[in-house]
Amino acid sequence: MKVAIIGGGIVGLTTAYNLAKDGIDVVVFERKYLLYGASGRNSGGITAMLNDERLINMAKKSMKIYNEIQSEIGFNFLYRKDGYIKVASNEDDLNKLKEEVSLQKRMGVKVKLIDANEVKDFIPDFNADAIIGGAYGEGGVIFPWPVIWGYAKGCKELGVDIKDYTTVEEIVVKDGTIDSVKANGEFFKADFVVNAAGAWSNEISKMAGVELNNRIIKEEICVTESLKPYIDPYLLDVTTGVYLSQSMRGEIVGGIVGNEVKSIDIKGSLDFLIRYAKRAVELIPKLKGLCILRQWAGVYDEAEVIPNISTTNIKGFVQANGFGKFGMCLAPAAGEKVAKLIKG
Fold first, then answer.
1. Residue 88 contacts by C-beta under 8 Å, 6 or more apart in sequence?
2. How many angstroms separate the CA atoms of 188 and 26, rounded?
3. Domain ranges, residue 333
4. Collapsed DSSP state (helix, strand, coil) of residue 232
5. 4, 133, 286, 292: most buried by Cβ count inside 10 Å?
6. Region 12-29: what's the mean pLDDT?
7. Are residues 40 and 59 in the same domain?
8. In a domain, 79, yes or no
9. Which residues, other chains included, contact 17 with Cβ-Cβ below 8 Å and sequence gap of 6+?
């Protein structure tokens, strides 16, 4: 069996790894370089504090895989399990958090509601007046770059051919069945094609004659100069969408949950910096005056039902996209699921 995976991000690589472990011939096509897409441009927040049973189960499984896969591959993902905090500043959002926590507890997630002052137990100089309550649970931060490097290492050691700077130009379909993929002018025979192209998935799907209407979301992030590390958990303000964490080197890495855009755009904006800085300082006054070292933007796709892991009317064409902002949380479990779908 020959499988062509389009997209060298976390979903494409976890799928490739799981297929290759069973001796399947896999080639991964990445149009730019590994880490160019959303897998290299996110903040690395990991948690099972989600609002859907199916996603919670996938996230729990993914967190377990992250724990185990590092020794299996022989690569440190820099996974810090220091907790995850969600806070809210209005009653509607706090009530939603309470409903989520109730669901999460039923699903076996270690999580609890906390009041505004209790956040200070985790972040000493947190401004309790900026919120009205929140939730604390299992989770943390994983560094996206070593995750991708590690999975790429594992894939290559299993014989996966990862072709970066290789643009898929055509998906050849004969009699309703996948035949081959044309990339950089060369044809590659394939029994299956996996569309794991993230924000480019609509475009790839169209090549196979399959309609896909995932939303494209743009998200901006920045990193500050270093402070002595003291913020352990990942912090998300569900009311404003502002999130942040502190790296092991002391930088504050943060952003704002993204918005839908009509086309792919990875340019940073001043408006983002103003909105992010204002709320970040309201939440943690100690951050005032820190210099921004770098800012960037990324794009990801969001399916109507997250994620889109499915077969299509074209035999051998498989969708593995539409993860929204949960790619890093769900991908290890998703990779196993896609591989199982292909193997039958």
1. 94, 96, 97, 131, 132, 133, 134, 237, 238, 239
2. 11
3. 2-74+144-213+305-343
4. coil
5. 4
6. 98
7. yes
8. no
9. 151, 154, 155, 158, 160, 335
Same domain for 185 and 278, yes or no, is no
CA distances in angstroms from 209 to 36, 173, 313, 317, listed in the order given: 26, 9, 9, 10
pTM value is: 0.96
Express each pLDDT in 38-56 by its tens digit: 999 999 999 999 999 999 9
Q: What number of CA atoms fall less than 13 Å from residue 179's CA on the CB side?
A: 10
Residues forming beta bridges with residue 199, ordered by sequence position:
none
Q: What is the mean pLDDT of residues 215-242?
A: 97
186 strand-pairing partners: 183
Q: In this structure, what token pair is assigned to residue 91?
A: 């009653």
**Residue 112's domain is classified under what CATH number?**
3.30.9.10
Q: Label residue 159 exposed, middle or buried (CB < 10 Å: 0-12, 13-18, 19+).
A: exposed
> 165-178 burial by CB neighbour count: b if 16+ within 10 A, else e?
ebebeebbbeeeeb
Judged by DSSP in three states, 270 sits in helix
3 state SS for 39-107: HHCCCCEEECCCCCHHHHHHHHHHHHHHHHHHHHHCCCCCEECCCEEEEECCHHHHHHHHHHHHHHHHC
Give the residue-averaged pLDDT of 58-79.
97
- On whether the CB atoms of residues 166 and 29 are closer than 8 A, the answer is yes
DSSP readout, 199-211? GGHHHHHHHTT--
In the chain, DSSP assigns E strands to 2-6, 25-29, 45-47, 79-80, 84-88, 111-114, 133-137, 139-142, 161-163, 168-174, 177-183, 186-189, 192-195, 215-226, 234-237, 242-246, 251-261, 292-302, 308-311, 317-321
Determine the pLDDT at residue 155: 98
Contact yes or no for 206/329 (Cβ under 8 A)? no
